[in-house]
Amino acid sequence: MSDIMPFRFSLHSLAKQDTIHQIMATNTISCQYGLSLTEEDAEQIFTARQIILKNLGRVEIGNGVITQLITAFCRSPFLSQENYAAAVVDLIEAFYYIKNETRDEIGDLELIELMQERFDNCCAGSVELLVSQGMEDIIQAVRQGYYHRTLSGEENEVSK
Amino acid sequence: MSNLSFPPYERKLPALDPHNYLVSLLNRAFTAQLISEAKMQTIQTQVMEVLKEIIFRYTGGQSSSVTTATAQSLINSILYCIDVRLLALDSPEESLRELDSKTIREIYQDGLALVESCLEETRKLFEQTQVSRIATDLIAYNSTIDVGLPGFLAQYDPRFLAHDTMADIDYPLASHCQNQRGIFYIREYIRKLNLENQFCSSFAEPDINRLLQNYGRTYNIDYREFLLNIFEIVFTNAVFAVMLGQNARHLVISKAHSDLLGSQLYSLDLSLIPPVLKQTVDRLIVQLAISDADLIVYIRSAEDTLLHRLLPALQNHSLDKLVITDHPIPQPSVTLLQPEPMQDADFRHLLHQLSQSDDSQAKAALIMGQVRTFSDFIDVLEADCLVSQDYQVLFECLGDLELAMLARLVVDIFGEDDTPLVQQISSSSSGKEWSSQLVLYLASINRERLKTIQQLASQLA
User: Fold this and answer.
1) How close, in Å, is residue B9 to chain A by CA atoms?
2) Banded model confidence at residue A15, pLDDT cuts 50, 70, 90
């Protein structure tokens, strides 16, 4: 019997097959926009997300964000089949990065909506621009403590 | 596994970590082949399922991810609740049976209920603390009761931070709370604090505060800013008071009594000190009419601590640092702020006004209205511009301190005997009109006031 303690809690353990299955299921929606992912793409996205989470110091308890991101962004005119899988990985990384920068104060769906709106408009489909400038006002609003005051109401100055 | 019957767990499951009970229990049980790998994986999966639920609640369902630090804190909170439940059982065997018969979610819920119950109990104990607290200037004591503990109890959340013990608790207890974490640590801290307050309630608060002041003088510190334990200081002096044959409630020990105690204790064989101390504490408990079993246990623990301080003090001849002797409270000295003296022209103008008036009341009003310094006042008295009746009216306008200052000027050194002030001033031979008038005036006022003036005069530098 090994002396090494066998019982521990892995915060990064996820059901791989379940995640890949859910990623593949998004093709039913994305194919309407001429986009689809192969099983190999899904595996790469799964692996990439594990690395991104670890690098950014986060723990994911479900697979919902990947499917939510894909479902939201597959409608974008700036995504093409050639860059689709890579763009999904970039967007996952951008999502968790902004999640950290906004100190978890913005819910997943709300953040994806904000990202999508800016990605399709002021950032012209550039994830790099989205991360470096596109969300800066939101990040500053959260840091200065007035995000919820200004963004939660109908008079949403920051998100206009 | 439900029919577990393994040898005494002390042999098979040694040295389980109470601060990481579930993990150490499972690892030891796995090593001792008391639990299968499959069961281990099942438990691990169930813990992660509970974590998912807690993260969902933590984020209000708005986010499926959290930072690693948050996740780690939440998992620590879950494990704390599980440990609370398992440690409430009689033995590791019982814990393993619990893990076999219930899911981790059920055990977590049971543990969470225990934690919430403990929180309620702790809040009630703290209400007692607020009632029994000692009126003292000790900063750490007050800040712990006013800020640290209420702040902790207000923000403690068993759902997400059950393991949390982050509180601004600076005040050190005489007996530390060992092997406790989270709310159980706080409950134990408050329980012991209440016992200490209960003990100190046998003594008059002014006596306790005077003892603390004497403690500060003994060690040349501002006791208010130090992390001192009031109970320990009070208990120690109460024990020595009883040794001296004083009443236990009489915390004041004079230097002479301290020397006497030293001469007796230094002459004793060290082997006799423990029984002597025990008998003294027995008498202390009787004299203070202490019957609370928990408090008696606490006092016995303090007796043990005191013994470990007393023996080296006797060996090193440093008993005078252990017995806090009374230092006379210094009388406050009087310091007067000197305003600017009058300008020469103004002074001459005042003298002219005084010489033109025959009304004693008007003269007194002029002097009291324009003279701002003691030296100017004396100059006016010695300027031959007042007649006999003017002095009496003017002295009538003066307060006790001003009269004491005048008396001090006539009599350089006040005797420490009880010679009346009037007699002392009369016997001095200043030969000045105003000093004779002062004697007459002081002889006319009531005795109590005269006594006050004499006390003030003796304190003036």
Assistant:
1) 19
2) low
- Give the residue on A whose Cα is nearest the Cα of B26: A7
Q: Which residue of B has its CA nearest to A7?
A: B27
Q: Say if the Cβ atoms of B59 and A99 lie within 8 Å.
A: no
Kindly state the tokens that stand for B381: 């008295």
Provide the pLDDT for residue B127: 96
- pLDDT for A66 equals 92
Put simply, the answer to whether B68 touches A11 (Cβ < 8 Å) is yes
Same-domain check for residues B294 and B401? no
Residues of A with Cβ-Cβ distance to B47 under 8 angstroms: 9
Within this chain, do residues B297 and B360 fall inside the same structural domain, yes or no?
no
Sort A118 into a burial class: Cβ within 10 Å, 0-12 / 13-18 / 19+: buried
Q: Please give the residue range of the domain that contains residue B262.
A: 203-330
- Which amino acid, residue B156? Y
Q: Which of B305, B330, B355 is the last residue of a domain?
A: B330
Chain A residues inside the 8 Å CB shell of B63? 99, 104, 107-108
Same domain, yes or no, for B264 and B378? Answer: no
> Given CB atoms, is A39 within the 8 Å cutoff of chain B?
no
Backbone angles phi, psi at B258, to 5 degrees: -65, -40
Do B309 and B235 belong together in one domain? Answer: yes
Alpha carbon of residue B430 to chain centroid? 53
Top residue of B31, B54, B63, B77 to mutate, by most chain A CBs within 10 Å, is B63
Mutation site for A-interface testing, chosen from B67, B80, B95 by largest number of A Cβ within 10 Å: B67
Judged by a CB distance cut-off of 8 A, whether residue A64 touches chain B is: yes
How far is Cα B85 from Cα B70, in angstroms, rounded to an integer?
A: 23
Whether residues B313 and B367 fall in one domain: no
Total-model pTM: 0.69
| Residue B401: predicted pLDDT | 83
What ipTM was predicted for this assembly?
Answer: 0.81
Our count of domains for chain B comes to: 3
The per-residue pLDDT for range B152-173, each reduced to its tens digit, is 999 999 999 999 888 888 999 9
Q: Of B64, B62, B102, B72, give the one whose Cα is nearest residue B86.
A: B102
Pairing of strands A58-60, B65-67: antiparallel
Task: Specify whether B305 is located in the same domain as B353.
Answer: no
Mean pLDDT, residues B119-142: 96
